[in-house]
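Propose amino acids for all 82 sites.
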């Protein structure tokens, strides 16, 4: 029984990582988070509760923040102060 629970947990973590990777990839491509979580791939591979958990995931927040920071630095018309 314990082995089965561990396998289920690992499969769930793997699936969550794949979804997180997909969402981050789409956001880096310029998609908005709200649009990405409505895409067929996400809806097919995650329940509403899992999508809600994914949105609250600190890794996603960090990736989104890093993407925004990179985009702003790239598009900044003037140098940033140190």
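Proposal:
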């Amino acid at each position: 029984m314990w082995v089965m629970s561990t396998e289920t947990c690992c499969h769930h973590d793997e699936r969550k990582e794949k979804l997180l990777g997909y969402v981050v990839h789409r956001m880096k491509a310029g998609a908005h988070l709200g649009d990405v979580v409505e895409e067929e791939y996400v809806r097919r591979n995650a329940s509403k509760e899992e999508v809600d958990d994914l949105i609250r995931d600190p890794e996603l927040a960090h990736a989104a923040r890093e993407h925004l920071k990179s985009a702003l630095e790239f598009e900044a018309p003037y140098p940033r102060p140190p």
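Residues 2-28 form the longest helix (27 residues). The two ends are 56 Å apart (CA to CA).
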